[in-house]
Amino acid sequence: MRNVFCLAVAVVFGLCAAAAHASFQDPLAPKLPVPRFATLGSDKVNVRTGPGLRYPITVVLKKEGLPVEIVKQFNGWRKIRDKEGDEGWVYRDLLSGKRAVIITGGEHVMRDDPETDSRPVVKLEAGVIAELDRCTEAWCRISIAGYGGWIERQNVWGVLPKETFKK
């Protein structure tokens, strides 16, 4: 009889805990949409298999300013995805709200204005990381190494498909 009572208490406690967890609002999660983009805020970021220090490190990212997509949040942890689609968890303090993009594809021309016949500013190769200033539906204004200008949105990674971004 005592075992039945203990089992009943454990079941009730488990149900209450599950209900409390389901209704729990993460106080550390910002009121920002997910997915969204951010950048690495440190030159050494441990990426883990889960949201906590007890989870093993899968990779160490060593590129401050690298854009990543935040795809999930849990307490102070953010699940991120990189340009190649690799995912893992990082602590929120290791991320920055600064925005950046990675040039994709081949070589592309940064232009003075958001028009294909605008004056060329500089050529950018795939893999280059540039600071993001703003985006329209078809173009993004970026800056890198003292140069600023516009690049076609289809040639960058680090902006959501329908996002119009302005710093």
What does this protein look like?
This protein is mainly beta and 167 residues long. The chain folds into two domains: 36-98, SH3 type barrels (Roll); 101-157, Roll (SH3 type barrels). Helix content is 13%, strand content 41%. The strands form four sheets. It has a five-stranded antiparallel β-sheet, with no helix packed on it. A five-stranded antiparallel β-sheet has the order 13-12-11-8-14, with no helix packed on it. A hairpin with a 2-residue loop joins strand 4 (67-74) and strand 5. The N and C termini lie far apart (66 Å).
How far apart are the first and last residues' alpha carbons, in Å? 66 Å
At the first level of CATH, what is the class of the largest domain?
Mainly Beta
Count of distinct structural domains: 2
Say how many strands there are: 14
Helix content: 10-25%
What pattern of helices and strands is seen along the backbone?
HEEEEEEEEEEEEEE
Major sheet characteristics: 5 strands, antiparallel
* CATH architectural category of the largest domain: Roll
Strand order in the sheet with the most strands: 6-5-4-1-7
What's the rounded overall pLDDT mean?
A: 86
CATH H-level homologous superfamily name of the largest domain: SH3 Domains
Structural class of the secondary elements? mainly beta
Q: Strand content of the residues, in percent?
A: 35-45%
Discrete helix count: 1
Q: What sort of overall outline do the alpha carbons produce when their principal axes are compared?
A: elongated
Q: From the alpha carbons, calculate the radius of gyration and give it in angstroms.
A: 22 Å
Low-pLDDT ranges? 1-25
Give me the CATH fold name of the largest domain. Answer: SH3 type barrels
